[in-house]
């Protein structure tokens, strides 16, 4: 199977992911003029596909990008990618770029926007995050999250210079993952994940200045269903220092326990009961048909 390592959709054709090529002139590459979304396939079914497609549409609209396909056509492309790769668990990315400028033009209104997509084996921000994997976090000191007045964090984008700088700061400090603050000292997010804390029996996560992660939404829904008090609003790093538990959330790994902050253990340094419970509930939700779009692989 030539598609075993993944499948891509480029210029209207399905190709093995290793053979997918885009133009060097594409402004998604040369200007980060692009939006994207990532949806997971788990055990042969998309998880919350409609929510991801809806967020992708909203991101495109906000950036004034018009992908050449509507939502139903994109869904069909994604299903076909997974089917041809035969992957049962996959990381499926949709991308819309401003595209290639017409010769001699820099007027973005004249560009024909491009659509790309691919499916590759499921990606983990933290190895074994569904069972034993944990994060050692630092609060980034050398970099702040890019201001929301410059780049709207609710639109998925590749303006990741701040997040990547934070990641290297974390490595330099002997940790694995950064948490970035905004200019007012409010907690935001990290490279590819939202951040939660458990403090005074309440689950805290920032309301604004962050991507409205679908995993974050799932965790908030599960917490509410289970009667866990939730507070969605601004808070500073002091609330993280008071926290007895912390975790991060992403489509690429689910609920990922954070066990140290700036080198000090959170709580007793073990994965806490609320985090453990929500991680289990998150993976159990992958069997809840309300969230699933099964892929027909055409197997015998
Ligand atoms: N924040 C940022 C900056 C992200 O890029 C991502 C996902 N890639 C998230 C949060 C988590 O979002 P989701 O749960 O929808 O994957």
UniProtKB/TrEMBL annotation:
<keyword id="KW-0808">Transferase</keyword>
<dbReference type="InterPro" id="IPR050571">
    <property type="entry name" value="Class-IV_PLP-Dep_Aminotrnsfr"/>
</dbReference>
<keyword id="KW-0663">Pyridoxal phosphate</keyword>
<keyword id="KW-0032">Aminotransferase</keyword>
<dbReference type="InterPro" id="IPR001544">
    <property type="entry name" value="Aminotrans_IV"/>
</dbReference>
<dbReference type="GO" id="GO:0047810">
    <property type="term" value="F:D-alanine-2-oxoglutarate aminotransferase activity"/>
</dbReference>
<dbReference type="InterPro" id="IPR043132">
    <property type="entry name" value="BCAT-like_C"/>
</dbReference>
<protein>
    <submittedName>
        <fullName>D-alanine aminotransferase</fullName>
        <ecNumber>2.6.1.21</ecNumber>
    </submittedName>
</protein>
<dbReference type="GO" id="GO:0008652">
    <property type="term" value="P:amino acid biosynthetic process"/>
</dbReference>
<dbReference type="GO" id="GO:0046394">
    <property type="term" value="P:carboxylic acid biosynthetic process"/>
</dbReference>
<comment type="similarity">
    <text>Belongs to the class-IV pyridoxal-phosphate-dependent aminotransferase family.</text>
</comment>
<dbReference type="Pfam" id="PF01063">
    <property type="entry name" value="Aminotran_4"/>
</dbReference>
<dbReference type="InterPro" id="IPR036038">
    <property type="entry name" value="Aminotransferase-like"/>
</dbReference>
<dbReference type="InterPro" id="IPR043131">
    <property type="entry name" value="BCAT-like_N"/>
</dbReference>
């Amino acid at each position: 199977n030539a598609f075993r390592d993944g499948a891509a959709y480029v210029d209207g054709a399905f190709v093995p992911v290793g053979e997918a090529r885009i133009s060097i002139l594409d402004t998604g590459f040369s200007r980060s003029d692009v939006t994207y979304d990532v949806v997971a396939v788990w055990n042969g079914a998309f998880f919350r596909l409609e929510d991801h497609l809806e967020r992708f549409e909203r991101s495109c609209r906000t950036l004034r990008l018009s992908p050449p396909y509507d939502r139903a056509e994109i869904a069909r492309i994604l299903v076909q990618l997974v089917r041809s790769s035969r992957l049962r668990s996959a990381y499926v990315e949709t991308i819309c770029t401003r595209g290639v400028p017409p010769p001699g033009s820099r007027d973005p209104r004249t560009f024909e926007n491009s659509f790309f997509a691919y499916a590759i084996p499921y990606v983990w921000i933290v190895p074994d995050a569904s069972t034993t994997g944990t994060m050692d976090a630092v609060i980034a000191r050398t970099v702040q999250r890019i201001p929301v007045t410059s780049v709207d964090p609710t639109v998925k984008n590749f303006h990741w210079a701040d997040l990547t700088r934070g990641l290297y700061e974390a490595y330099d400090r002997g940790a694995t993952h950064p948490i970035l603050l905004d200019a007012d000292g409010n907690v935001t997010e990290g490279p590819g994940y939202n951040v939660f804390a458990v403090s005074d029996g309440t689950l805290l996560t920032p309301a604004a200045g962050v991507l409205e992660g679908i995993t974050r939404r799932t965790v908030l829904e599960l917490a509410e269903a289970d009667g866990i008090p939730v507070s969605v609003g601004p808070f500073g790093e002091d609330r993280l220092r008071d926290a007895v538990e912390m975790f991060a959330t992403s489509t690429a790994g689910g609920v990922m326990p954070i066990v140290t902050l700036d080198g000090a253990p959170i709580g007793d340094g073990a994965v806490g009961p609320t985090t453990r419970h929500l991680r289990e509930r998150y993976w159990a939700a992958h069997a809840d048909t309300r969230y699933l779009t099964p892929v027909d692989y055409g197997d015998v």
